[in-house]
UniProtKB/TrEMBL annotation:
InterPro entries: Divisome_Glycosyl_Hydrolase, GH, GHL10. This is Family 10 glycosylhydrolase. The keyword Transit peptide does not apply. It holds the Pfam family GHL10. It comes from Halotia branconii CENA392.
Length: 499
């Protein structure tokens, strides 16, 4: 892990002090008859209406058992895959992805073909398939050794491997299929297990995320907890057995809170009060004075001059209290009075607590992406461009240190800002590009639909045109989501409403 400071810190002094509190990773890997392409596609690599209709008619005929239609349909699928590849190779962006959630009803024959065809028709060459979300995993029930229930729990469908089938159907159409997964948000089902109670993150008020997130389904775990690490590591390995083209890690952060709680200004606001996180924090002490002051700061939220004087008397053989990342100011003398030292020590203890919380997220990302790296499979991290910002001496409650994510991972900033035009969206992307090292692959996620505005967001055409100016630095863009572009189909599939 790099030791560079958080780029969003306002003052130079504050930046320098946070830099001193950020430390290298303590993470350890556990042992654990065809028209030419130019006549078929539009400038966005979308297939013509005639091509779409011809393919769908063949699909329907093939589904009814017409063997000739089946052969022609497969030929057309291959032709469109080649046309898409050709178009994307010469059209910005070279990577255009769509976010997709599947449902149990999608096991019906022909459904995945229909979905994947639609994705190709719109000019996409990648799919981000949601595999782990809301406390359930897209693995077949008979081959799911994880602690989470399978998405498909319908009697008689225990053997259906929707993830493997979706990857196969995508590949047939020239699509790369990424597995998109929640990360530190393990879901409500995890909280129901008594044997995992200690793995759940807690703040200094004794709360878990169930008490602070509106929908009551998000359960964020302690990223330092060994059990939580093992559970997630096993799930990632099972997903990788299906050989997706990449992994995407979402919810790489702490809970997002509302109102005044959206800014963490005191230690009790931080999610560092579960046992494993506290023990890891205590291990950052480099002498007994440092350990004792960390303990007192964590228990009360502050240290007094009296605390410092008591600690000096407890360990008179030691100099200044020390912990990882602490660098003594020039000419710092332990002969300064406890009262003179108190403001600096309290400030540095606060920075230590914030840095420790952030490091937990960074370590968990390293753990999660490790199995994919071993297989030479791409990984990416999904984040909010504002998730690492400071407000005064406080921090965004999500504590999402995306500016310190590894540069060998893809960066997927969610440029979801709303201001009735494209300006706030491009500002978010510009901020990420200005911070990301030059070798980082940045692939912004845009929210919207083609051909019109939605939820105060301009059309995808308008957003894409605005981002075009960032090429060639920006080579990929993704769109959230299939459900926004095809809301009726998404709803029908979700509730099994089929004609």
């Amino acid at each position: 892990m790099s030791n560079r400071p958080l780029n969003s810190v306002k003052s130079k002094l504050f930046c320098q002090r946070l830099f001193a509190a950020i430390f290298s990773s303590s993470f350890l890997i556990p042992n654990f008859g065809s028209q030419p392409a130019q006549a078929q596609v539009t400038k966005y690599c979308q297939l013509s209406t005639a091509a779409v209709k011809a393919k769908e008619n063949l699909r329907l005929s093939a589904f009814k058992g017409n063997q000739d239609a089946q052969n022609r349909y497969q030929q057309l699928v291959q032709q469109h895959a080649q046309e898409l590849q050709s178009c994307r190779s010469r059209t910005w962006p070279q990577t255009q992805a769509l976010w997709l959630r599947l449902y149990p009803c999608d096991i019906r024959p022909g459904t995945l073909d229909y979905i994947m065809d639609r994705i190709v028709n719109r000019g996409y060459n990648q799919v981000y398939l949601e595999v782990f979300y809301d406390g359930q995993v897209l693995l077949p029930a008979v081959a799911n050794p994880t602690v989470w229930p399978s998405v498909i729990r319908t009697s008689g469908s225990e053997n259906v491997d929707l993830l493997a089938i979706a990857i196969q159907k995508g590949h047939q159409r020239g699509l790369k299929v990424y597995s998109w997964m929640f990360t530190t948000n393990f879901g409500y089902t995890y909280a129901q297990r008594q044997d995992r109670e200690g793995a759940i993150a807690r703040n200094g008020k004794g709360q878990t995320s169930l008490y602070v997130v509106d929908n009551g389904s998000q359960v964020f775990i302690d990223p330092y907890n060994p059990q939580a690490k093992r559970d997630y590591f096993q799930m990632v390995q099972e997903v990788l057995r299906r050989r997706p083209d990449g992994l995407l890690f979402d919810y790489v952060r702490y809970p997002r809170q509302a109102g005044s709680d959206s800014i963490a200004t005191k230690v009790s606001d931080l999610w560092i009060f579960s046992q494993s996180t506290q023990e890891a924090l205590f291990r950052r002490a480099q002498n007994y004075k440092g350990l004792e002051l960390i303990r007192r700061f964590l228990s009360k939220g502050y240290v007094t001059a009296g605390d410092i004087a008591q600690v000096d008397k407890l360990y008179p053989q030691e100099g200044e209290p020390m912990w990882q990342g602490r660098i003594l100011p020039p000419r710092q003398k332990s002969i300064l009075s406890p009262r003179d030292r108190q403001p600096l020590l309290q400030s540095e203890l606060w920075l230590l607590a914030v840095a420790h919380a952030m490091q937990g997220i960074l370590d968990f990302v390293a753990l999660a992406s490790y199995p994919a790296k071993q297989l030479n499979i791409s990984s990416g991290v999904v984040f909010f461009p504002g998730g690492n910002q400071t407000v005064g001496q406080g921090y965004d409650s999500r504590l999402q240190p995306w500016d310190r994510f590894p540069t060998d991972l893809e960066w997927h900033p969610m440029a979801y800002a709303t201001c009735n035009n494209v300006n706030c969206i491009t500002e978010q992307v510009q901020r990420v590009l200005s911070i990301a090292p030059s070798n980082t692959q940045v692939i912004p996620a845009l929210a919207g639909k083609w051909g019109g505005s939605v939820s105060n967001r301009p059309s995808l055409e308008a957003q894409m045109q605005a981002l075009r100016k960032f090429a060639p630095q920006l080579k990929g863009v993704s769109h959230f989501a299939y459900s926004w572009q095809y809301p009726e189909n998404d709803s029908d599939r979700k509730f099994c409403r089929f004609k």
